[in-house]
Amino acid sequence: MSIETPVLRRTTPASATPLVAPTAAGILHLGLGSFHRAHQAVYTAAALETAGGDWGIVGVASRSRSIVDAMHAQDMLYSVATISPGSTSLTIPGVHTDAFVGAEQPERVIAQIADPGIRIVTLTVTENGYSYSPATQHLDLDDESVRADLRGGAPRSTIGQLARGLQARAAAGGSPISILSCDNLSSNGAHTEKLVREFLHELPGSEALDALTFLDGSVSFPSSMVDRIVPATTAELRDRVGTLLGARDDIPVPAEPFTMWAIEDRFAGGRPAWEAGGAVFTDEVARYEQMKVRLLNGTHSLIAYLGALRGVATIPEAIGLDGIENAARTVLRDEYEPSIEVPSGVDIRAYESELFERWANSALGHRTSQVGTDGSVKLRQRIPEPALRALRHGEMPHLIALTVAGYLSCIAPLPGFDPGPHAAAMSDSARERLAGYAASARTGRELAQRVIGDLHLFGDGLGAHDAFIARVGELVDTIRQRGVDTAIADAVSASHATTSSLISAEELQP
Ligand code: CS2
Questions:
Q1: Pick from 460, 356, 322, 474: which is nearest to 404 by CA?
Q2: How many helices (H) and strands (E) would you count in the chain?
Q3: Is the domain of 186 the same as that of 297?
Q4: Predicted confidence (pLDDT) at residue 58 exceeds the cutoff of 80
Q5: What is the DSSP letter of 29?
Q6: Rounded mean pLDDT, 207-229
Q7: Angle of helix 322-330 relative to helix 484-496, nearest 10 degrees?
Q8: What is the CA(347)–ligand 1 centre distance, in A?
Q9: If you measure from the C-alpha of residue 497 to the centroid of ligand 1, how many angstroms do you get, rounded to a whole number?
């Protein structure tokens, strides 16, 4: 790309043009990251192209200026590069009407939620962004930003922003609105509603009464399941997109061809015709969510940790290794699939074989360190129920235990064990605390006991299962002493040998 290449703008001649012309905003989106820009924005562009409507999106980045500044410099435009081996195609959604940084303009977040023109607030704030305490199973009242938001002033936490924004909306006339979570959490709509209500209930005296009445009558929190693999952007992609586009785009988003969105159709203030982009409106979102969070995300975590421990940088390289592919097939079939109810009309065999094709998309370069990041929060969504279901049936979930052992080996390696650079590149809010445990643990069993048993990192149920904790500990030791391939072979063969995986009911009771 030459330095004279013009910057992407609405008037710049380019090989792809924005799908939609500017329109008034009807959606406020919190979390202006790559995933939102390659998923919801594309569905919204299809909806506007087909059915019109004032559903432009105002995007709020939580802290970082970079995307916001680049979007302003590019007339709110950017391209989505749909990448498969052998082809890259570009789409420019063009649905954003404005973008700003929430931390810099917190009052504006509130004002936008109160604005009657906004009829949906959508969220991609990651599993970590909900200020939820797994220990109390409620809003995290020990969290510093939640405490500050409850005291008053401009809110900083997402739940504080929503609650304060809905209070302001109630005071401004209370026109109906929906809050739509697009994060990988089970029952994400109900979860968000519960936390917003808990925030309001914490407010002193009758301060929240109007807002709570408004919530009862005019605010809906539909659940949704989102799916599209979106790796981080690279300099190489920026160059490639510039060449293909004939214009400079500083913030392209790479994404796989597959995309899916299942949404509960409960929108208090109306909604775009997202079905035009292929979204499925269904009462079975909970089933879609379970299928996706366990089969895709749960197996993804296994591939990421084992891959990183094998020294590979990307998911396609990891799934290309026989042992890891075998482990992925085993966990998917034997441990995740029995724990889900398949949504009506979904062919589970086709869904599973598509997963392997998606993971093998070598052109995408999805990194093991990206998927392995934040395991302390992600794994809690992915593993406890399927693992507990197996244990209740008298079966040890060896591959889920291996997922946890892989996670611990990457994030909290025992003294003397080096998990390598891809594990070191994983960030995790629990890393420091877990590393502290690991530093004084002598065995994998001790480490697993502290993390799963004492800290209850994966919830109370698994925290009480000695047999599971012992199995994780054993696999941590195997990884450390005999290598990850031996641990994989051990877990897969134990899982296949039904006799050895059937353990006495007594042993399995907490
Ligand atoms: C991944 C997800 O990073 C991760 O943990 O499992 O981001 C995954 O790529 C998306 O959920 C796919 O929809």
A1: 474
A2: 26, 14
A3: no
A4: yes
A5: E
A6: 97
A7: 40
A8: 21
A9: 31
All residues at 6 or more sequence positions from 137 whose CB lies less than 8 Å from its CB, including other chains: none
- pLDDT value at position 134? 85
Please tell me the predicted confidence (pLDDT) of residue 4. 76
Ligand 1 atom with the smallest distance to the CA of 227 is: 13
12 assigned to some structural domain: no
Q: Which tokens go with 100?
A: 């700003």
Query: Which burial class, exposed, middle or buried, applies to 53 when counting CB atoms under 10 A from its CB (0-12, 13-18, 19+)?
Result: middle
**Do residues 418 and 332 share a domain?**
yes
Grade residue 3 by pLDDT with cuts at 50, 70 and 90: low
Ligand 1 interacting residues, C-beta cut-off 6 A: 184, 227-229, 297, 300, 370-371, 378
pLDDT in tens, 64-100: 999 999 999 999 999 999 999 999 999 999 999 999 9
Q: What is the mean pLDDT of residues 446-457?
A: 96
Domain that holds residue 472: 285-507
Please give the C-alpha separations between residue 311 and each of 296, 303, 485, in angstroms, as whole numbers: 22, 12, 12
pLDDT band at 500; cut points 50, 70, 90? very low
- Residue with the smallest CA separation from ligand 1 atom 13 is 227
Q: What CATH number does residue 494 fall under?
A: 1.10.1040.10
Task: Tell me how many domains the chain contains.
Answer: 2
Q: Which of 213, 248, 281 is the last residue before a domain boundary? A: 281
Residues 191 and 302 in one domain: no
Does residue 408 share a domain with residue 485? Answer: yes
Segment 122-133 shows an average pLDDT of 95
- 215 plus 95 within the same structural domain: yes
Separation of alpha carbons 461 and 459, rounded Å: 6
Residue 502 in this model has a pLDDT that exceeds 70: no
Share above pLDDT 70 across residues of the chain, in percent, rounded to a whole number:
97
**Which of 185, 227, 229, when mutated, tests ligand 1's pocket best, judged by the most ligand atoms within 8 Å of its CB?**
229
